[in-house]
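#struct-pred

JT: dropping the chains for the assembly here, can someone run the whole complex?
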Amino acid sequence: MRNDQLAELGQQLRVDAVRAADAAGSGHPTSSMSAADLAAVLLAHHLRYDFDQPDHPGNDRLIFSKGHASPLLYALYRVAGAIDDEELLSFRRLDSRLEGHPTPRLPWVDVATGSLGQGLPVGVGMALAGKRLDQIPYRVWVLAGDSEMAEGSVWEAVEHAAYEHLDNLTLIIDVNRLGQRGPTRHGWDLEAYARRLGAFGWHTIEIDGHDVVAVDAALKEAGSTVGQPTAIIARTRKGRGVAEVEDREGMHGKPLPDAAAAIEELGGPRFIRVDVHKPPAAKVLHTALGGPLSLPAFEVGESVATRTAFGKALAALGSARSDVVALDGEVGDSTRTEYFAKVHPSRFFECYIAEQELVGTAVGMQARGYVPYASTFAAFLTRAHDFIRMAAVSRAAINLVGSHAGVAIGQDGPSQMGLEDLAMFRALHGSTVLYPCDANQTARLVAAMAELPGVSYLRTSRGNMPVIYGPDEEFPVGGSKVLRSSDRDRVTVVAGGVTVHEAVRAADLLGQEGIDVRIVDLYSVKPADAVTLQEAADATGCLLTVEDHRPEGGIGDAVAEAFTDGRPMPRLVRLGVRNMPGSATPEEQLHMSGIDAESIAAAVRLLVEQAVVR
Amino acid sequence: MRNDQLAELGQQLRVDAVRAADAAGSGHPTSSMSAADLAAVLLAHHLRYDFDQPDHPGNDRLIFSKGHASPLLYALYRVAGAIDDEELLSFRRLDSRLEGHPTPRLPWVDVATGSLGQGLPVGVGMALAGKRLDQIPYRVWVLAGDSEMAEGSVWEAVEHAAYEHLDNLTLIIDVNRLGQRGPTRHGWDLEAYARRLGAFGWHTIEIDGHDVVAVDAALKEAGSTVGQPTAIIARTRKGRGVAEVEDREGMHGKPLPDAAAAIEELGGPRFIRVDVHKPPAAKVLHTALGGPLSLPAFEVGESVATRTAFGKALAALGSARSDVVALDGEVGDSTRTEYFAKVHPSRFFECYIAEQELVGTAVGMQARGYVPYASTFAAFLTRAHDFIRMAAVSRAAINLVGSHAGVAIGQDGPSQMGLEDLAMFRALHGSTVLYPCDANQTARLVAAMAELPGVSYLRTSRGNMPVIYGPDEEFPVGGSKVLRSSDRDRVTVVAGGVTVHEAVRAADLLGQEGIDVRIVDLYSVKPADAVTLQEAADATGCLLTVEDHRPEGGIGDAVAEAFTDGRPMPRLVRLGVRNMPGSATPEEQLHMSGIDAESIAAAVRLLVEQAVVR
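RK: done, full complex below.
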């Protein structure tokens, strides 16, 4: 395309952004207009993408990290012939796929954006997959705003990308100098960004983002740079092309005051179509089919930590299917992903202590068809909460494994204890939350996760625990195990993980006193096994939940939720971690928090004595 | 102190770290040994701290961001005479204040550490307070590990500190080249760190961290550098001084294999005492006492967004007391902290789009006696979840305000909707969770938050809502309001925020059909008003919760928790956001998610028709 045509294309994108936001009555046209020339040249000359085959493995990946520039993205789709003008103007309407911020409801959008600073971490995952797994020469293009460069997650990704020499990754920064509520820290000081990125090992190019010749040259240079990722740092003007809003504060996130005049000022609507370059033929290498799955088997009575069982099961799963990858937050010796790393080093990714990048990379890899297991301490997954939340919006299938759950870790103290993780994961849309209490159960659940949609979470424990289930036992997601049951049960104890063993010990103590209790191992916290819980309620009338987690948001709440269909409720009593733990042995911790066998037994006795239960 | 004495002091710290970990049977001696010389010189020559007066406003602040080096910190305390040898050896024992990672159970520890990458963000808050609020020349010293430099939160703080010219802040990086599971990305490449920090505008000094002369000179240079924060990048050896562990992998986080031999190799125990330099006299400027509090008053029937009421109330609160500060995540025009910024610019802190830094700064400021209100979209507070979790461990009193709650925001779509925030905040130890539905209620709660301990959260809404309470009405934390009540009520609807208004509308619809419902406005989600809920349960037998939040972890779970004392349960039914929203108007969103008046009325009708309720 000639330069004047490229400039015309930029104007078309601007007009369409104005039109879409005007039709919607909301949206971010000015943030779209600043990046229009960058996007025009990218689409016309550099992107390789088959819009008829969004699943083509050779397609480049385009991520609008500045997701609020969605009108620009949708305007590009119209240029490419992927959507028509009528759909463009459905922007932000109920039932339109053109949401305020892009989501994978559109087949050309891999991941949802709109929480700033997430595009590059996800892009790193895609670029890593391209380099180290797919071996397909697709490029990953990330369009970012200048404001979001303040997000730490961006710098986690910048470090990761440089360290991995991801020369298939290009970051395009739309430096329009204005954030939502005013100027950014660095304004139009392109060199401020270049200095920082350069120090991390990136190749940087500073340009005028409205000069299509410069843009074209920069994108070409990015494509031919070897051994380093490239950042194109483009000076632009927010609202470019319309004097009433151009480079003016207070114009963020709203339609233009006078859209008709603006469209006229921009030269009116245009209908340029671009035949986007098609990608070369490419073949997917990974496969869910491999050798037969031979999960590790543990003997009943053996003492094994569930984190160890996780590591061994993941290694086995990796042998059975080549689409499984493991990601570590520099604690692989603790989470036991090191077992996987030893057997499958090419599918193991060290993300160092950067949990947002850890999860972002996982999201990027699942978008390329892989089945990622990302793991760190349960406590530190809270670091990536916003990424996990956005993964749910992305309809991403990722598996997260948090080790060192609860006070049972012992002496390291509260900073290392996952005590809020169940609450975090339960509240996610479409999530699955699993919490095994023994090694064979863990192994089965690790394998089951590979087939689940959405965000799946496995909570593992630091300390050894006795194996209580045989290796052939099955543990369907959504199920539970009734470990003790009789027609004399006066209370049902619902437990998970470490407290299952405490509950069993409590049942032994109580049995000596003639008090029978039912025990439910709620290994699937979400979905929870409502039927079994309801049966237990009918039989015993009272459910006592006990969990190594805060009283809010975990097993106690999950059990209560099983009775929210309007049916008569059983009596519900809950034990959880209500204190602020310090350092102590695991046994002392469980006791101090009131969730050990003695505490459970005491609670049951109280319920029986107070005749709360029959 | 002479150089040979400084070196001896370093050895003492090493020996004590080895002894403490040996006594505990766990801990991180090798990570302490690498930083021993740095700590020795800092304590002996540069720190100004009165250990008898930890509240002295002139005290320097010392933050061990690498909190696992706690044995070193406690060894310092012994040198300073703050603890005795017996207490040192109580490390990690039940009831010892010397926890595995430092917490404010010790009077000399301002904030808990142990989740890496948090010390610098918190230190920036303290240094900002010193510069812009306290006007006291204390220095903030942050000791960090090299591994944690991978955390994005560190780079948020690095950017913030340079931008604010915090020359009272020194970062000491203990570059021992070994992380938990192996080498770091940059090993001993000090220049890699210097290049990055320098690019962000920091003064950097590279030294041999075991050369006490070099350490002394570097600390002095840091103290005399003007206009820039300084980073001392120190090459050290993990486990320094004991050949069996020095610079060896696999020696992280465990006592030395042969402590007795190690102590001998280090020259045996020493009992050097240092009289730490006292700070100059200093006076606290801020005060809780100011003018009378004149909260904004809104007229019943007026249409006001609770976010607007928050902004106005916060500005008023800032006029009444000079210890109130406001922090913004570059969305002050949306959260309405801009009202505060206009009236109190000197106490307004723009943290840009860096939510971890936003919360870290707030934690640092509350440690200096301020009452911070940090605000961004509710959805984006998830970005800082780990910081908020650690704030609870720090016993920090911070106020967090999340705007744009729920699907009611409308067209911007799910990335911008706070739908998991109540779950996140409810599960925190000692937290308070408030969710007002009108402007006067909001104003009262904003004022109440200033007096609360721990992490307090206020959830505000984007859209205008009718004012339903008079300006003189009181809203105690832990209370609720019964908006409709009669002896014919068949169901109790428990709502919060926007759904209160939907519930009122539903009651009107149902009233026309002869169905009376009780309405409880649960503005205090945690603690919840168990008494009122229990009374409503006794009266109506069935509680229907309705919330603009995921069904898990929010109002539904809070209400269920009010019945976990063993009493008979009412029937509980919940309405919450079970779909994945797209873009639509606020009204359409509430309807699509089944939490609008029509949905509530339909649910009540069903309950009545099914004779679930009497």
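JT: nice. Chain B is about 40% helix and 15% strand. The mean pLDDT of chain B is 97.
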